[in-house]
Specification:
single chain, mainly alpha, 76% helix
Length: 178
Amino acid sequence: MKGKQPRFPNKFVVIGVITLLLGLMLLLWTVGELKHPVNLWPAGLLIAGLVLLYFRVFHTGPDSYLFLGIASFLSGLLLLITKLVVPLELTAIWPFFMTICGLALLVYGLRKRGYTRLSLAVPGVATLLLSFLFLPFSLGIIKRPFAEVVTDWWPLVLVVLGIALLVLHLVREKAERQ
């Protein structure tokens, strides 16, 4: 006879995460890094993401919880870091949000099968690549305006497209031989 299923089987995970977050926030406050508790508002996003991930992983919630959980958790983490550790303006970090959405979409898409996997993973990778393209400009690493760089380097798109088509041809040819 099987044992009775506990009502709250993952209580140590939940209590551990809550204790960890509370301890980190109190530590920031006691060492003087947290002068204004209102700066902790992104912790709400972080906690919401953790809750969604918890329900997806431990309670077999819908797959959409995976995308929303990853995006909320990482967005909350990014905003907390910019509020407490590295003070950057939203105009400088917006490509990181593209990175977060691309990563969440990619992870979500890789859990699917067939055409759905491809239709979610390709936009996820494209969003990641675009975010990596925009990031050096928004952080001021590249000083030239984006429009000037695009004007000079646009033929590179044709080069990359040509290489991709050649690789696609070689992969299809190899698959046909087998």
